[in-house]
Write a structure and sequence with these properties.
Pfam families: Pro_isomerase (PF00160). The chain is of the alpha+beta class and about 250 residues long. It has 5 helices and 8 strands.
């Protein structure tokens, strides 16, 4: 009966000690960027047909409140958020914009913080590469729910006006499809491009020592498991010897 307990213990250790990481391909898009603390996978559809995912790395140490807001809306934690919302604005070779879960036309949406706007955290990161994830706003300190992803290599005129808090690291083929989507009035796509669902993972940042703590804990679990297995094996061996002696 002790062995099931051992495996339950091991499973709990493993689930707590193994962080969700980024692939080498994904990491290549984060060169020169701060530590990524979260990975968010947005599942995208076109006219309700699945087209793939946008994989985003978030910089929670650089813009913690902005990241908290985005993660909350992506997970639907407050009871509202991005699931089922559309990309209502596409400007080719500039941006794709979404997040207006309230009206779907760029005039609505609000934050997880009492449904109010919140201030710009900082402008430490720049719109200096394709796939930058940044907050849309109606002016200074008016961040709510809407966001955009850049589709050009550089949009420096946005610096100092919009808070960059993430970077696209996967799903560039989906970004290409959105970038070239036919649009109508007010840059609205003709087809319905939507976020159907989202997966959220946390990446323990190596610079804070969290990853080292995870590895230490995992090592401790391994050593404990080996010791436990050795004790159990020896205990069972003794039982066999004693049983054999009594049967003679």
């Amino acid at each position: 009966m002790r062995w099931p307990i051992f495996w339950i213990f091991w499973a709990l250790c493993a689930s707590q000690a193994i962080p969700i990481g980024f692939s080498s391909s994904e990491l290549s898009h984060l060169a020169g960027d701060p530590v990524a603390t979260h990975k968010v996978v947005l599942h995208i559809s076109k006219d309700k047909a699945d087209v793939g995912s946008l994989v985003l790395a978030l910089f929670g140490q650089t813009a913690p409140k902005t990241v908290e807001n985005f993660v909350g809306l992506a997970s639907m934690a407050p009871g509202y958020g991005y699931h089922g919302t559309i990309f209502h604005r596409v400007i080719k070779d500039f941006i794709i914009q979404g997040g207006d879960f309230e009206r779907g036309d760029g005039t609505g949406g609000y934050s997880i913080f009492d449904k109010k706007s919140f201030a710009d955290e900082n402008f430490d990161l720049h719109h200096d590469k394709r796939g930058r994830l940044s907050m849309a706003n109606a002016g200074k300190d008016t961040n709510g729910a809407q966001f955009f992803i850049t589709t050009s290599e550089s949009s420096t005129h946005l610096n100092g006006h919009h808070v960059v808090f993430g970077q696209l690291v996967g799903g560039f083929e989906v970004l290409d499809l959105l970038n070239t989507a036919p649009t109508g009035e007010n840059d609205r796509p003709v087809s319905r491009w939507a976020i159907e669902d989202a997966d959220i993972f946390v990446e323990p940042p190596a610079e804070t020592g969290s990853l080292g703590s995870y590895r230490f804990f995992m090592g401790l679990c391994l050593v404990s498991s080996v010791c436990y297995a050795a004790v159990q094996w020896n205990h069972r061996r003794k039982k066999v010897v004693i049983t054999g002696f009594r049967s003679m």
